[in-house]
């Protein structure tokens, strides 16, 4: 089996990486937005920068649309960039802050459980 074919299949570290991103992207976006409104590319850059290059995503739009649909984020204005591109900004809502607190607590609980498994004999 060729490497490229194997990378697209379950049972590889690559698939674990992708599944982890899918499971945590909403929490990560809300965390990024808690400090102020941002446009999509800016959010992507922040995720990459704050993770030391480990957390990189190709697109955030599905997560943004889900979060907006639940009322956890909202559009916070549209501005023109210096190079005449339209930038749509998003901001976290009060219910998004509550959801972030819940997600963060659950993530930490799960992480403690995984750490316990790894440290047990």
Characterize the structure shown.
This protein is an alpha+beta fold. The chain has a single domain (19-119), classed as Orthogonal Bundle (Arc Repressor Mutant, subunit A). It is built from five helices and three strands, in the order ααβααββα. It has helices at residues 3-7, 13-33, 40-50, 61-69, 94-119; strands spanning 38-39, 73-80, 86-92. The chain has a three-stranded antiparallel beta sheet with strand order 1-3-2. A hairpin with a 5-residue loop joins strand 2 (73-80) and strand 3 (86-92). 17% of the residues are buried. The model has no long low-confidence stretch (mean pLDDT 89).
The number of helical runs is 5
Mean pLDDT: 89
Helical fraction: 55-70%
User: How does the helix and strand content classify structurally?
Assistant: alpha+beta
How much of the sequence lies in strands comes to 5-15%
The structural domain count equals: 1
Q: Roughly how many Å apart are the termini? A: 35 Å
Query: Stretches where pLDDT falls below 50 for ≥5 residues?
Result: none
The total beta strand count reads 3
| Main sheet record | 3 strands, antiparallel
CATH class: Mainly Alpha
Write the layout of secondary structure elements.
Blueprint: H1 3-7, H2 13-33, E1 38-39, H3 40-50, H4 61-69, E2 73-80, E3 86-92, H5 94-119
Antiparallel strand pairs: 1-3, 2-3
């Amino acid at each position: 089996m060729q490497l490229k074919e194997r990378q697209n299949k379950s049972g590889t570290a690559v698939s674990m990486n992708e599944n982890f991103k899918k499971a945590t992207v909403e929490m990560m976006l809300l965390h990024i937005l808690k400090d102020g409104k941002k446009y999509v590319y800016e959010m992507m850059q922040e995720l990459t920068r704050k993770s030391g290059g480990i957390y990189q995503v190709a697109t955030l739009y599905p997560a943004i649309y889900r979060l907006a649909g639940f009322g956890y984020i909202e559009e916070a204005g549209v501005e023109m960039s210096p190079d005449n591109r339209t930038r749509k900004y998003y901001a976290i809502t009060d219910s998004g802050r509550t959801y972030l607190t819940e997600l963060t607590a659950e993530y930490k609980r799960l992480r403690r459980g995984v750490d316990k498994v790894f440290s047990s004999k």
